[in-house]
């Protein structure tokens, strides 16, 4: 089956995914034959420090809970990875899906630019907030785990990075620090000669139902509302080594764009997937089995889903996807359970009840 067109929910071709993701060999090695690349070339092409000759190395000793990270795992820049995968494809920008509806002849897709498309076969791969899933499986709920998480990005000048950040990172691209049940993370997103992009995460278990930093029922649009209590809590942190002291400076954070993350999980019921599949609607990746951002393996699972689904369609056509669901569903269930266990182990929180 040849892919003729690919519609993206991005409104322009400007980079929106300039951040790092951890890739494991179990998911990226099967891609290499398809891409016609060897492992070293692949890693240099998309590693967060690839432009400077690096391979995205991660030192497990720099992590609080390495989880599945092994010597072949590495940090990739998502935008570079997407650019590599898009080569040779006809990608149409500006198609943000508003809703999907079943019709007598297939599925109609309605986009926010007032265009629409009808197809006999639709694959929903539009992430955890999938409008395909919300339209056609509206009763599938999110699970919200009892954890607080805030995230931000920062561009650091090379001189400052070399002086304060680099000595701590050493040969890694990930740094983590634990203070009781609070975890501070710093990741390299992309290294360039003059500027280094980094991301940070502040996470801990929720302190009960009155925790001002835990808002499990907030709308998606509420991710940019950051209560003053977050900055107050950052100000109480003491004894931080560099570069944590530099990054988690409350005054600097007040001047930056900070996001409030919810640790969401979702899994569409197997029977409902079968029912929709018979109508020509299929799902893969986070749109059908989302794991929480912390402790989850969303990027790797999506890669594996894509490869395995393509093999299935190539061999059996869309009618074979029911058997693909049968084979993958237990893997998805296990992945969500393991991700929830991982976030508990990461924060060493025996009090968090899932």
UniProtKB/TrEMBL annotation:
Pathway: Secondary metabolite biosynthesis. Residues 84-315 form the FAD-binding domain. GO terms for molecular function: FAD binding; monooxygenase activity. Keywords: FAD, Flavoprotein, Monooxygenase, Oxidoreductase. Its cofactor is FAD. Pfam families: FAD_binding_3 (PF01494). InterPro entries: FAD-bd, FAD/NAD-bd_sf. Belongs to the paxM FAD-dependent monooxygenase family. This is FAD-binding domain-containing protein.
């Amino acid at each position: 089956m040849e892919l003729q067109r690919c519609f993206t929910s991005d409104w322009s071709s400007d980079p929106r995914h300039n951040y790092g993701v951890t890739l494991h060999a179990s998911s990226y090695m099967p891609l290499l034959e398809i891409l016609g690349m060897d492992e070293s070339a692949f890693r240099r092409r998309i590693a967060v420090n690839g432009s400077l000759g690096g391979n995205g190395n991660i030192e497990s000793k720099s992590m609080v809970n390495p989880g599945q990270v092994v010597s072949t795992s590495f940090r990739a820049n998502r935008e570079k990875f997407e650019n590599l995968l898009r080569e040779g494809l006809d990608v149409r920008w500006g198609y943000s899906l508003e809703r999907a509806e079943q019709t007598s002849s297939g599925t109609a897709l309605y986009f926010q630019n007032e265009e629409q498309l009808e197809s006999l076969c639709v694959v929903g791969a539009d992430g955890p907030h999938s409008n395909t899933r919300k339209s056609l499986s509206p009763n599938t709920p999110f699970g919200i785990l009892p954890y607080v998480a805030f995230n931000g990005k920062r561009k650091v000048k090379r001189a400052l990075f070399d002086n304060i950040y680099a000595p701590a990172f050493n040969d890694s691209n990930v740094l983590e620090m634990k203070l009781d049940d609070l975890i501070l993370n710093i990741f390299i997103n992309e290294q360039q000669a003059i500027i280094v992009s980094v991301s940070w995460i502040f996470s801990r278990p929720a302190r009960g139902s009155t925790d001002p930093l835990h808002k499990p029922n907030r709308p998606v649009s509420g991710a940019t509302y950051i209560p003053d209590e977050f900055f107050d809590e950052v100000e109480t942190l003491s004894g931080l080594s560099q570069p944590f002291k530099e990054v988690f400076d409350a005054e600097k954070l007040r001047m930056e764009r900070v996001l409030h993350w919810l640790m969401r999980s979702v899994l569409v019921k197997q029977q409902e997937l079968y029912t929709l599949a018979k109508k020509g609607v299929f799902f893969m990746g986070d749109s059908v089995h989302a794991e929480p951002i912390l402790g989850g393996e969303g990027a790797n699972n999506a890669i594996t889903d894509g490869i395995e689904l393509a093999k299935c369609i190539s061999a059996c056509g869309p009618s074979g996807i029911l058997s693909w669901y049968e084979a993958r569903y237990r893997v998805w269930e296990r992945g969500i359970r393991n991700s929830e266990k991982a976030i508990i182990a990461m924060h060493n929180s025996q009090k968090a009840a899932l």
